Amino acid sequence: MTNKYRMIQVGTGGQGNGWCSRFLPPNIADGRIEPVAAVDVNPDVLVNAQQHLGLPPEKCYTDIERAFDENPADFCTVVVPPAFHESVVDVALAHDMHIISEKPIADTLEGSVRIAAKVKRAGKKMGVTMSHRFDQDKTTLRRELRSGRAGTIDYIICRFTCGLRNFGDWGAHFRHTMEETLMIEGSVHHLDIIADLADSKCDTIYAQTWNPTWGEYNTGSQGHVMMTFENGTRAFYEGAKTNASGFNGWSQEYFRAECENETLIMDCRRIERFPYQPKLSSREGQGEEVQLMEQSKWRNEWLIAQFLDWMDGGPPMETNVEANLQSVALIFAAIESSHTGQPVKVQEFLRQAQEEEERAHAT
After folding, report:
1. Which of 164, 221, 269, 319 suits a disulfide with 215, CB 3.0-4.6 Å?
2. Alpha carbon of 57 to those of 13, 51, 82: distances in Å?
3. Percent of the chain scored above 70 by pLDDT?
4. Is the pTM for the entire model greater than 0.70?
């Protein structure tokens, strides 16, 4: 049985406008969500909630405490810059609400672990929308690898390259002024996808991040990452925001899975397979094309539906906050590696952060 849940939208500009105009409406049309209020510190963008969610002006607020006090709800969204996620989570938990948030959980590993612990202690549900992992092409590639047809995965390559070097090119200005922007705002998706395709927790990560003189970012607009997983799979990631040309930007990423029986390549949303043929060379574009899966919802629309299913009593969504700590740990372990020049044992890195949070909470 499905229920209708009352929702407060927190963040209505930028990506928040996407939630108002594209991601929420299909689930509202399904009779599963009733928007009751919206919040944004910028009053000008609250018009997005009025136009797309049908909220009257008096239900659109710049004061989050007032919005939550005056509008009882079952859950809220968190679609604000990562540095402000924890403050929204605190208000939501204080008002006995479940939460669905944009990635990452927070802008630090410590904040992410703290949020997950708070949610667990409160007995609430929190999902994180790792939208790119749940896109049509990535989901199809995952299905192919999970089918067993390709055999054991040896290693995975991912390329994400953009020509967005000037201030403001990458949307919201905070991405150009924050620390380690590629990892926190971009690679959080790609390393998460790699780990999902590997179907294993990451054991060791080694990374280098930097910013070329021509890139109008604070730090870390470019990065290379090497990963080794607990099941033996290896991976290499190339991420770039300041290249001269963007060959594999958002939703057009390149993935190559080198497997025992096949090579699988996904490039700009097209997937092809190359079965093992002794002593034969192949060229990209000449393989057997894999038809993409079809369904009514993808990315955030699908993840919101998964979150609602979880609230209905179904199993936890794959990207629940506890599970998503693995994704956050990858990013901050990569940043730690880049700063120290040394590989990082990811599970130990995460465990230390969790133990520190437990000690801090106990005192």
Report:
1. 221
2. 16, 10, 27
3. 100
4. yes
